[in-house]
């Protein structure tokens, strides 16, 4: 039982510990438990466990690595499903333990223990919310890996520098989550930064997670390249498409391709290869141009460039089909290829998404890959748009 303390200034009686415990967490825990059960129903854990058993059998096959590409897909999918199941089961255990934490804190009158329990409740709200967003990724290609292209736009050397900052931001985001990435091509600008870069994020649901990043990103800052220290506005475009799989039917006529080979180069024109191994492919009917220079072999670069071209053509086909369907329905096509987010570093500091309204007052953290809040917000926003 908690000891009563008389306040000498007011002569009133109060219980110190209950003054701190201003909220009853039982209702919030109950709501979170209900949300998690709904998520479990959507994900169908029993079906996921059956897939894991099947993939484990494939992974144990002695000839698995005779086909390295297929082996990589099997092991990647297995790792993802195991992580997904562990994530849900871990949240369920934490929710079961949480009422006990609050109980013990109340019985012992321990304010530090109460604060710890409240922090765990806040953490669970965030983690369950993030998992709930995952269940919204139900589009045809959402489960695919993502191919991302960044291009500098208006703003001169500052825009090229901004494009490189965005490249680092997405690679850091992937690194934070343990996702494998591969940069296919980087075209460096003459003074600083990059003209463009193309890279792939190799994890299931990367496309569904990142497709809302497609659009123009705007940076406002004091230009480090202006000797008068003036404020500069720069723009860079981000393009996100799903990686093509064997089940996709993308026919590419060799006669429609113009293939150029050239020598790979690094920042400032520094050569990184002594042979003409880099490959640029132009798809003449559509005008789509892709290139790859990350491999030493011209054949490997060509294969990677063709994979990028296939992904671009698949996305073009998807957009044309969606536009045709919307026309039949009498609807206008929603485009996310406009300015989507502002990053302001001067005269104040804020990052704000123009669609979801999500904002953060620490641009440095965002540019270091802390993107989850923005990504979750845009996924929810897109689902609301698609539902209308």
From TrEMBL:
Taxonomically, the superkingdom here is Bacteria
Write down any Gene Ontology CC term: cytoplasm
Q: Which residues form a coiled coil?
A: 78-134
Task: Note the PROSITE patterns from the entry.
Answer: RF_PROK_I
The record's GO molecular-function terms, alphabetically, read:
translation release factor activity, codon specific
PTMs per UniProt: Methylated by PrmC. Methylation increases the termination efficiency of RF2.
Q: What does this protein do?
A: Peptide chain release factor 2 directs the termination of translation in response to the peptide chain termination codons UGA and UAA.
Protein name, per record: Peptide chain release factor 2
- Source organism per entry reads Planotetraspora phitsanulokensis
Q: Which gene encodes it?
A: prfB
């Amino acid at each position: 039982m908690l000891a009563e303390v008389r306040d000498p200034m007011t002569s009133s009686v109060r219980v110190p510990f209950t003054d701190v415990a201003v909220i009853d967490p039982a209702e919030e825990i109950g709501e979170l438990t209900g949300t998690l059960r709904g998520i479990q129903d959507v994900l169908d854990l029993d079906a996921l466990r059956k897939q894991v058993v099947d993939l484990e059998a494939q992974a144990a096959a002695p000839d698995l690595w005779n086909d390295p590409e297929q082996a990589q897909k099997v092991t990647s999918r297995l790792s993802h499903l195991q992580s997904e199941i562990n994530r849900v089961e871990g949240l369920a255990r934490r929710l079961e333990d949480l009422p006990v934490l609050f109980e013990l804190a109340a019985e012992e009158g321990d304010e530090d223990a109460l604060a710890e329990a409240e922090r765990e409740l806040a953490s669970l709200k965030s983690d369950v919310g993030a998992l709930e967003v995952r269940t919204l990724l139900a589009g045809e290609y959402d489960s695919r890996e993502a191919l991302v292209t960044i291009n500098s736009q208006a703003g001169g050397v500052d825009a090229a520098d901004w494009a490189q900052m965005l490249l680092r931001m997405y690679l850091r985001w992937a690194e934070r989550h343990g996702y494998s990435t591969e940069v296919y091509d980087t075209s460096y600008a003459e003074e600083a930064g990059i003209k463009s870069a193309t890279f792939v994020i190799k994890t299931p649901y990367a496309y569904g997670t990142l497709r809302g990043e497609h659009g123009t990103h705007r940076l406002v800052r004091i230009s480090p390249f202006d000797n008068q220290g003036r404020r500069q506005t720069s723009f860079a475009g981000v393009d996100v498409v799903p990686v093509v799989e064997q089940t996709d039917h993308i026919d590419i006529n060799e006669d429609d391709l113009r293939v150029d080979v050239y020598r790979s180069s690094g920042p400032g024109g520094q050569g990184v290869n002594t042979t003409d191994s880099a490959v640029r492919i132009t798809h003449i009917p559509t005008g789509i141009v892709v290139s790859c220079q990350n491999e030493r072999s011209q054949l490997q670069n060509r294969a990677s460039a063709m994979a990028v071209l296939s992904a671009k053509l698949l996305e073009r086909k998807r957009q044309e089909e969606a536009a045709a369907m919307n026309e039949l329905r009498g609807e206008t096509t929603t485009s996310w290829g406009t300015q989507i987010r502002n990053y302001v570093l001067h005269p104040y500091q804020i990052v704000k998404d123009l669609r979801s309204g999500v904002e953060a007052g620490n641009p440095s953290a965002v540019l270091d890959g802390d993107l989850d809040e923005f990504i979750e917000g845009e996924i929810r926003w897109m689902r609301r748009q698609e539902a209308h």
